[in-house]
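Something for you to look into today, if you have time. What I am after is a single protein written out in full by you. I want to see for myself how the chain folds. Could you add the entry underneath, on a fresh line?
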Amino acid sequence: MSHVVVVGAGLSGLAAACHLVGDGHRVTVVEREDVPGGRAGRLTRDGFTFDTGPTVLTMPDLIDRPLRAAGSSLAERLDLQLLDPAYRGFFADGSTLEVRHGHEAMRAEIHRECGSLDAAAFDEFVIWLRRLYLTEMGSFIDRNFDRPTDLLADPRAAAKLFAMGGFGRLGPMIRRRFRDERLHRLFSFQAMYAGLAPDEALSIYAVITYMDSIEGVYFPKGGMRAVPEALAGAAADAGAEFRYGTSVTELVRDSSGRVRGVATDDGERIAADAVVCTVDLPTAYRWWLPDVRPPRAVSGLLGGNYSPSCVVWHVGVRGVADGKAHHNIHFGHQWSEAFDDLLKRGTLMSDPSRLVTMHSLDDEEAAPEGHSTLYVLEPVPHLEVGSIDWEAPSTRDMMRERLLGFLQENGYPTDIVTEELVTPADWLDQGMAAGTPFALAHTFPQTGPFRPNNIDRRVPGLVFAGSGTVPGVGVPMVLPSGRLAAQRVGQMLGRPA
């Protein structure tokens, strides 16, 4: 039986482990933390439990797929609650708009707040989004590419994406469809998940809007940390071995350059027929493949390849906010100008938009009674653009005061019991290239078949998974990334009998 080592028990590594063990491989998962999760981590302090990574869960069928590969199911492992509204949008003019679940509910919200013309436009928008998703998922997202020309293997799908305007720009496309400026923001802010301003993002990334606005946003009982726990449990029950609290220090390679296993910080060498590496792809090259030139997108030959970073402030407070939803987006007056600050000038947004997630509204274990957890996120430049010194205590203090003032101005409780501020310097310390948890931006040269591949033929025996490779960033994307990595291992080793 072939042996596969998976480096990292984040979502992509766990998905890979589920598929690999389901395919009959012997699997060992090596994780430096004491619990599964990776970027979908947790922080427990002073009676509060914070989800420290992604807060938005969509497309639960993409979780069910690896669970079923390991002989389990979503229904068996997770209790999901549909969030309605998925988001509550707060605008600088004092108005609010909610992203409601389902076509009819969202149409009614738009009709009430924006008028009949935009409500009718939403009907056409939903049809377009569904067609885009169905065309894009199988032919562009959930597949391995060996070369860019593989996109032409299904010429009808490629032609359909072009004909639908999928390779146009997201911001202008949204503006052409809707009159109300608030809808322009509500249906295009998701471009930030792809690391781009809406006016720069390809329209194919409206598929994220489809996932949020049409398919719905969910929250698992026990918090977002329940997702990696479910995947790890299914993989372990199917026979995968987990070694927590163990760091990989080296990829073991033979004289031909083939990967033969990993070395760990406890001095052990774990032999393997293949290794799946979920460390951020640029970081993996820097740490463990110094003799191999990285893909062009991460080799420094192109500028601005990384997504913006963010500051996240985890705050445990006394009190519960009135009039707030699980996910709250506070839009500033500015829009395109704020993205110029972030992406071109490398400065803090002069008029930022921010996300506040209140897990404790739907997670009774997150905070003591009468208390709340606040997850406050502000986008900031990554470390390769601009010159903000995140190591300086004065910078951290300034950012804390900036976010505290924002919470006070917007009616959130601010009687702080415990807190943790996470900056780009902290993301970098965790191994995330350029200090961003959002990896390589989804520019056209880093999208689909042009994104760094999950194999490097100069390093046989090694497969990548995670945000830095195909298909891309975010919970919905890294789960298929694990399956695609397992598929590559199967091509290398064959599926055991």
Remarks:
- The first helix runs from residue 11 to 22.
